[in-house]
C-alpha cells in the first residue's frame, strides 16, 4: 500500500534583543557563568512585576509582516501554568488565544508553499545542567529571554520539504533581525510533528512529536526514520501511539522520550500583571520598512548578476559574503566599464573565486571571513588580473592567501611573489630548453606520437616557471622547439 507522510513544524527562536522579555537583565546566549544575568523579576521573587520589552514585540511583528501574516491591532499575554524546576515562576508568560501574528505563508526555494498557523511571543525557561556526580543544577541566565514560537499547518509531505521550510524560516528570522537563530547555540529549536496516512485518505494519522533535535540534518534524518517506523508499525498490524521521540545519532533512530497519556491542562488565563498590548502603531511603522527578504534577494541576484542556483544559495545563506560579493561586483563593473573586456567571463571568474578559492584560502590560513584582510576593491582587482591573463590561476591562489591573511593590493603582491605571467619568450625559452633536457624520455615519447607527453612537459615548464608562464605561450614554444 502507498503511504503519504504529513509533517507540521513548531519552531522556537530566541529573539536577538539586548535585554530579557520582562526585566532589564542582559539577554546573552554566550554567557557561560551560570546565574549571572538574573534579577528579582526573572527569578520570580514575590512582589516583582514584569514590564514588556518593546523591541521583542517589534521583532515578532517584523516576522509576521515578512510572512505576509495578519498582525491584529491588539494582543495580550496569558499565563501557562505548569511546574518545572527551571521555571522559577511556576508558570510561563505566553500567548494563548490572541497571538501577535496569525496566518502567513512561507515559500521554500523549490517553490513549496507552507501555511503558517500563528506566531506568538513568550519567555524562555532556564536550563538544567547535569554534572558528573549525578547532581542537577539550575542556571537561570536563559529564564525570561524573549522567545518566539511559530507553528505551521501540517502542509509538508517529506522530510526534505520540512528541512527546507525550517531553513527558509531561519533565514527570514535572520534577515529581519529577529533572531540569530543558530541551531547549535539553541537560539532556534525545531520540533517536527510526523504522521502517515494512506494516499488519498482525507483523515490524518496519529502524530508523533520529534523534539530536542539540534541540527537541520538530524531533523531531516529523524523525520525520515520516523516515517519508515510508522509505516512499518501499521503494516505489521500495530498502531501509532501519540508520543514524543528524540533522535539518537549513534543508533541512527528515533527514541521514545515520553508517551502522551492525556492532554495537559495548562489552566491558561490572561496575565493579570500586564495590560493588553496595542500593536497597531508598531505594525504601521514597520510596514514598508522591512529589509530585503531571502526570496527577494534570490530574484535580484538572478536579475542583476545572472547567478546560478548554487551560487545564489551560497550567498543568500551567508549575508556577510553576499554583501562582499555585491561590493566586489560593483568594483568589477567599474573596471569593465572602461571597455575591451569580456564581462561575462569576468563575472563568471568572480563567482567561481567567491564560491571556492576564497573559502579555500580562508580555510588554509585559518582566517574567519569576518576577520579577513581582503576588501572588495582588492578582490575585484584580482579577478581583473586573472581575466586579463596577467596572472595564472596558480599565481592567483598564492596571491589570495596573502590577501586574506595580510591584505594589500593584488598587483603589489603579485610583484612581491614574482608571479606575474611573463610573455617574455626569451626567459621562457630558457626554462623550456632546460625542461626538455631534463625529460628526455617524455621528449622521445612525444616524438613517437604520444600526445599526453606534451601535456606533461607543459606541466613541468609551468612548475619550473612558478606559474609565471602563460600555459598557451608555453605550449606554443614547446611545440616549436620540439619541431
Ligand atoms: P496539539 O494540540 O497536539 O498541540 P496542534 O493541532 O496544535 O496539536 O498542532 C501542533 C503541530 O502539529 C502543528 O505544527 C501542526 O501542523 C502539526 N500537526 C497537527 N496534526 C498533525 C498530524 N496529524 N500529522 C502531522 N502533523 C500534525
Ligand atoms: Zn531579570
Ligand atoms: Mg498545540
3D architecture notes:
- 36% of the residues are buried.
- This protein has helices at residues 54-66, 159-175, 216-235, 280-286, 294-305, 309-316, 319-337, 343-364, 376-387, 393-405, 410-417, 425-438, 440-447, 452-464, 471-482, and strands at residues 3-14, 74-75, 78-81, 91-94, 101-102, 105-107, 113-123, 127-130, 136-139, 146-152, 188-198, 208-213, 243-248, 253-259, 269-270, 277-278.
- The protein has three domains: 3-287, no CATH class; 294-417, no CATH class; 425-482, Arc Repressor Mutant, subunit A, CATH 1.10.10.
- The longest helix has 22 residues, at 343-364.
- It contains 15 helices and 16 strands.
- It binds adenosine-5'-diphosphate (ADP), zinc ion and magnesium ion (MG).
- Zinc ion (ZN) binds next to loops.
Layout of strands and helices, then pairs:
Layout: E1 3-14, H1 54-66, E2 74-75, E3 78-81, E4 91-94, E5 101-102, E6 105-107, E7 113-123, E8 127-130, E9 136-139, E10 146-152, H2 159-175, E11 188-198, E12 208-213, H3 216-235, E13 243-248, E14 253-259, E15 269-270, E16 277-278, H4 280-286, H5 294-305, H6 309-316, H7 319-337, H8 343-364, H9 376-387, H10 393-405, H11 410-417, H12 425-438, H13 440-447, H14 452-464, H15 471-482
Parallel strand pairs: 12-13
Antiparallel strand pairs: 1-10, 1-11, 2-16, 3-4, 3-15, 5-7, 6-7, 7-10, 8-9, 11-12, 13-14
Helix pairs in contact: 2-3, 7-8, 7-9, 8-9, 8-10, 9-10, 10-11, 12-14, 12-15, 13-14, 14-15
